[in-house]
Design goal:
mainly beta, six-stranded antiparallel beta barrel, 1 helix
Length: 209
């Protein structure tokens, strides 16, 4: 979210330069460094959240939990309305340089994302993922199926009587559980708002989630 991900630095090195100890090339456009901006990344038949470290008109650098290789095609969703596509240029210990297939106007793009957030359109990015989960409430233990998940909430299909306002605990994976409150429920599908957010790293790869 750009509210807390302020534009903090401007320099003239390229995304691909981060992995190259040899002589640096000057880029045609400056690199804008953003702090902790969260994006949804799709690559190698996997999906997860990542952090944008910097962005320029031609590329960007991210940190991701996915295992990637140079040449991999990648899609980076900065919001539900803003997607970028590119190729992985380098990958080193979860840091990844991406060259965009189509250059962008990065200052205008950052302004657009800020405006989306300021008018309340920038909701947390959701990851479509189906897996069985267990929901614990005053009604006991209930089997459910996860449909999608974000840092702040999730959607499940269920056979129980999950009414709005019901406090629940969702067992998402061995050793991973989150408390929340049912916000809405209709036709066997419920939306749950989490009282403790999930980290970018916990949602870094749906393949290992």
């Amino acid at each position: 979210m750009i509210g807390s991900n302020q534009l903090v630095h401007l320099d003239e090195t390229t995304v691909s330069d981060e992995a190259q100890p040899a002589p640096r090339k000057r880029r045609r456009s400056p690199r804008f460094r953003t702090v902790f901006r969260v994006a949804r990344v799709s690559a190698r038949d996997d999906q997860g959240l990542a952090r944008i470290q910097n962005i320029s008109d031609e590329g960007l650098m991210i940190t991701t939990s996915m295992e990637l290789s140079p040449g991999d095609a990648i899609q980076i969703d900065l919001s539900d309305d803003c997607s970028l596509t590119g190729l992985v240029v380098w990958y080193d210990r979860h840091r990844c340089g991406v060259r965009l297939l189509r250059p962008v106007n990065s200052p205008a793009l950052l302004r657009q994302l800020y405006e989306e957030r300021s008018v309340g359109h920038g909701r947390p990015l959701r990851l479509a993922h189906r897996k069985p989960v267990v929901v614990v409430s005053e009604q006991g233990h209930s089997a459910a199926a996860l449909q999608d998940i974000s840092q702040t909430g999730l959607k499940i299909s269920h056979k129980g009587n999950f009414n709005p306002g019901l406090a629940v605990k969702v067992l998402l994976a061995p050793g991973m559980e989150r408390s929340g409150v049912v916000r809405w429920s209709k036709d066997g599908v419920a939306g749950i708002a989490l009282t403790e957010i999930l980290s970018v790293e916990e949602l870094g790869s749906m393949r290992s989630f």
